[in-house]
Design brief:
Layout: E1 3-8, E2 14-20, E3 30-36, H1 48-57, E4 61-66, H2 82-86, H3 90-102, H4 104-108, E5 112-122, H5 124-133, E6 144-148, H6 159-168, E7 170-174, E8 181-185, H7 186-194, H8 201-207, E9 212-217, H9 225-234, E10 239-244, H10 262-279
Parallel strand pairs: 3-4, 3-5, 5-6, 6-9, 9-10
Antiparallel strand pairs: 1-2, 2-4, 7-8
Helix pairs in contact: 3-5, 8-9
């Protein structure tokens, strides 16, 4: 069973997470993978438990957690803290992930090998993982990076949408799975506009040094594969792009998780191979 943890960040936000521990593989400390979910996601969504179990079975300590702005409490799959969701920003998410990296010794009771830490991120979480890997304070801790369906640009709204956002103070998004209509506050827009340089994903792709595997579905309906190709084209070596045929944004996975699809299996095989190559 995964082991729960909680962490209070330096900014005063509380994070809840789970540790999936290797059962039969090698002595401690273990190579460690920190998993970052995406927009409207959470640590127990869809394929994340399956991915963490696979990594643990391969001898990795998998650390997954809910970003503070997800607004999802442990054991739930709806946004219960709407205010946290409304006030979330990219910069806060990078800070949250950095806080987890900083606290790995305490969170894991010394079981994590600080010299062998990888990051995994899906969709917007892929962008957050990339930004952390390129961050001057966090990047030195990151030995390798894997992203699935990572967005290639943080500014994803039209001029008309942003004008209405400024005027009304918030815009809304609908979670297609739950039907929840959720607000995005002005802080997110201000973060994107004020911190363009720090949040430039193409620049981060050039700046990061950790070996990077980019996995993208050719039929991604939410983040076109062209965004992954653009990041891969800008990225310094070592990096590798894997385009999965007949795969959408979640590689066929749904929530609640039913079973792995061939596309998800292909993504997971490439991922665990990358981590074994660079961390084991």
């Amino acid at each position: 069973m995964p082991r729960p943890f909680q962490l209070d960040t330096p900014a005063g936000r509380r994070l809840h997470g789970l540790l999936d521990l290797p059962a039969r593989h090698g002595p401690q400390p273990w190579p460690t993978v920190v998993v970052c979910h995406g927009f409207k996601g959470f640590m127990d969504w869809g394929f994340f438990p399956h991915l963490a179990e696979l990594l643990a079975d391969r001898g990795f300590l998998a650390v997954r957690f809910n970003l503070s702005g997800a607004g999802v409490r442990p054991g739930e799959d709806l946004v219960g803290d709407v205010a946290a969701f409304r006030d979330d920003t990219y910069s806060k998410e990078v800070e949250d992930l950095g806080a987890v990296l900083d606290a790995l010794p305490a969170i894991t009771g010394g079981c994590a090998d600080g010299r062998r830490v990888g990051l995994f991120g899906h969709s917007r979480g892929g962008a957050v993982a990339l930004l952390a890997a390129a961050h001057p304070d966090h990047g030195a801790r990151v030995r390798c990076l894997v992203t699935w369906a990572a967005i290639g640009e943080v500014d994803r709204w039209s001029a008309e949408e942003k004008e209405r956002w400024r005027r009304e103070g918030a815009i809304t998004v609908t979670n297609a799975r739950t039907g929840q209509v959720l607000p995005l506050g002005r802080a997110l827009l201000e973060d994107v506009e004020r911190h363009r340089q720090a949040l430039d994903l193409v620049a981060a792709a050039r700046r990061r040094t950790a070996p990077w595997l980019l996995v993208h579905g050719r039929q991604d309906e939410s983040v076109p594969a062209a965004e992954g190709e653009r990041l891969a084209g800008a990225a310094t070596e070592p990096r590798e792009l894997v385009l999965v045929d007949d795969a959408g944004h979640t590689f066929g996975a749904t929530h609640p998780f039913a079973h792995p699809t061939p596309q998800l299996t292909a993504a997971m095989n490439a991922t665990q191979g990358w981590f074994r190559r660079h961390l084991a």
